[in-house]
TrEMBL record:
GO terms for molecular function: transmembrane transporter activity. Keywords: Cell membrane, Membrane, Transmembrane, Transmembrane helix, Transport. Signal peptide: none annotated. It is a multi-pass membrane protein. The chain crosses the membrane at residues 29-50, 57-78, 84-102. It comes from Streptomyces hundungensis. InterPro entries: EmrE-like, Small_drug/metabolite_transptr, Small_multidrug_res. This is Multidrug transporter EmrE. The gene is emrE. Belongs to the drug/metabolite transporter (DMT) superfamily. Small multidrug resistance (SMR) (TC 2.A.7.1) family.
Length: 107
């Protein structure tokens, strides 16, 4: 169950960050509201996740996956340049999250 909550927290953060792009500095009502509600929900769900998972593991997954997906969303849906450096950066983020999780499993 904690990983389901974490996945929902990540999804909420991705929606909020995507809406932030369209809020135009919080000058547009609906994207601004989606951003605020999305981040509140993301942090609430992350806090529930921390009842069962270590903070290092949960935050590594939450921030790493969120960053990688938002970078991909920017390139695929928002017209941002897709460069080899960006793709390599996403791969390194994912690799780092995997390594942190593998290292966290051994106590």
């Amino acid at each position: 169950m904690p990983y389901v909550l974490l996945a929902c927290a990540i999804g909420s953060e991705i929606v909020a960050t995507s809406a932030l792009k369209y809020s135009e500095g919080f000058t547009r009502l609906w994207p601004s509201l989606i951003t605020g509600v999305g981040y509140l929900l993301a942090f609430f769900l992350l806090s529930l996740t921390l009842k069962s998972l270590s903070v290092g593991t949960a935050y590594a997954i939450w921030s790493g996956v969120g960053t990688a997906v938002i970078a991909a969303v920017g390139m695929v849906f928002m017209g941002e340049a897709m460069t080899a450096a960006k793709i390599a950066g996403i791969a390194l983020i994912i690799g780092g999250v995997v390594l942190l999780n593998l290292g966290g499993a051994a106590h």
